[in-house]
Amino acid sequence: MKIDATDRKILSELQRDAAQSLDEIAKAVGSSKTPVWNRIRKMREAGIIGAQTVVLDAEALGFEATFFVLIRTSEHEADWQRRFLHALQARPEVQEAHRLAGDIDYILKVRVKNARAYDAFYQALISEVKVHNVTALLSMEQIKETTALPL
Amino acid sequence: MKIDATDRKILSELQRDAAQSLDEIAKAVGSSKTPVWNRIRKMREAGIIGAQTVVLDAEALGFEATFFVLIRTSEHEADWQRRFLHALQARPEVQEAHRLAGDIDYILKVRVKNARAYDAFYQALISEVKVHNVTALLSMEQIKETTALPL
DNA sequence: CGCCGAGGCGGGAAAATTTCCTATGTCTAT
DNA sequence: ATAGACATAGGAAATTTTCCCGCCTCGGCG
């Protein structure tokens, strides 16, 4: 599927505020309801537009600690990797996980209520899968957060 | 503002799918339209519920490279910090930025079209603000991604 | 050069949803 | 037990989404 400038403007508006009405989006992109609706429908079908969610205030809900966890492992067999992956998927405090190129094998972003909760998470993880080396970076302050792609 | 179990269920539903109708949410949390609507309104006013956005398929839109950037700096004056912060805010490829405790001072999550675009970003950044040491971790594969908090 | 077909566009109408009001119910503290 | 504070259900009005239809534009083709 190909995306033109109008599609990009629509995506940009949706990222800014997905609760807008079609009329508002249409006005913002300089078109009218129906074409905008058709484009959104097509992009949804193509999987370019995925789920619609809300941004919550993590601090207000008691999630006051964010850690980035750098993981090195000596195990690289398929079985180990599968178990590791499942462990991450199953733990809701893991907000993001990437397999990396180079020296460090994995990075996790972990959101928890406090440092104690992080330790509980850490103990549970290393008891499930063997890892060679773990470094935790504690966030003092979130300077920027956005999910918006620059279109 | 205090949050009870019903509020948490509502938030959970909204995180799962913010496009649901009030009736659907009400059914899911075992209540009816109006109370759900009032609770959502109050949580919005309190800032617990923030913006509503869509999740886009970054790969399909040509953003194929994600880097985590670890930054050490020798400068810790207020002025340097302010300039650094502004530089990050101004760059749309920076999706996330944290000030850290310990050895490493900052971590960034940077999303770009390709490695070349990362290099352009990197050159631009270090020409704006002086940093002591930069390590870039390239993501090979995003194993997990969610913004949902475990309520 | 004109014609034809495909596809996007705008208007509008029906269905669904949100928003808001009112009356009723429930829980707590004294 | 009772008053007060607050949450709830139902429903009505306004807004929004969804979808249908006729029109216009733009490409290729005779």
Automatic annotation (TrEMBL), chains A, B:
GO molecular function, one term: sequence-specific DNA binding
GO terms classed as biological process: regulation of DNA-templated transcription; response to amino acid
PROSITE patterns, A to Z: HTH_ASNC_1, HTH_ASNC_2
Domain of life: Bacteria
A cellular component term, taken from the record's GO annotations: cytosol
Alphabetical keyword list: DNA-binding, Transcription, Transcription regulation
Family annotation (CDD domains): HTH_ARSR
Pfam families: AsnC_trans_reg (PF01037), HTH_AsnC-type (PF13404)
Domain HTH asnC-type span(s) in chain numbering: 3-64
PANTHER family in UniProt: DNA-BINDING TRANSCRIPTIONAL ACTIVATOR DECR, LEUCINE-RESPONSIVE REGULATORY PROTEIN
Protein name (Swiss-Prot/TrEMBL): Transcriptional regulator, AsnC family
Species assigned in the record: Citreimonas salinaria
